[in-house]
Amino acid sequence: MEYRFGLIGYPIKHSLSPWIHEKFLQKAGLQGNYSLYEINTNESFADKFADKIEELKNENLNGFNVTVPYKKTIIPFLDEVDKEAEAIGAVNTVICKNGKWIGYNTDGNGYLRSLIKAFPTVGQDKNLKILILGAGGAARGILYTLSINGFQHIDLANRTEESARALKELYELDNTSLLSLKEAENVMEKYDLIIQTTSVGMKSIEGNTIVSINRLSEKNIVSDIIYQPVETNLLRNAKNAGARIHYGHTMLLYQAQYAFELWTNMRVAINEMETELLEQLEG
Description:
By secondary structure, this protein is of the alpha/beta class. The chain is 37% helix and 19% strand.
């Protein structure tokens, strides 16, 4: 059997997903390919997107990934949506099987896998004090996954309280406290794990940080889901303060690993791919 996978989104020309999944195919000893299906719907969005999806159905794919800006847009075109993706409100992986398209979300699960790989004790301590910075789509997925995996103490810090409150109420998290970013700065050291989920610090705005990092030590883990640049200003500051750090590019690999698992029922080992991906990102 020759597998056919792909990615829809815009823009995606520089996506690393083909490299990652073709590596997975090699590791699994499977034949197949992974293609990019860039959908630019700047004009007459609804009709154009529907037309492109109809074209995609004729590609006879075994599965495909979905990235921005279509993680919500794709949902009405699916036959089924997994309960986790439904709770998160976004789909990033679709299985095409027996004439049906079934949507999943691998982001939260991939994040947790990457975190536990880097810090195995995290998976054994459900009493960790966790702070999530941001309340957007990425925060939603990570918060949901952490909460269903038994982590009891998760607080949210965001620029606007309304968004954070909506997230807390959505998942009925009675133990979750809401903080402003300034309040979070003043109590940062009390959290075992701090997770940065916003776009602040990406390559286009590289020097920025969402909060100032101070008074941290090796008991604190600071995690940033941004992977370009690999070491954001936030992570650099956290490392200089003595904290342990967790890089975003590892989440990219492990959420892809979970997607590949859904498509093929095979779990491939990441091993040297973390280093190889790092080299790709650093050019």
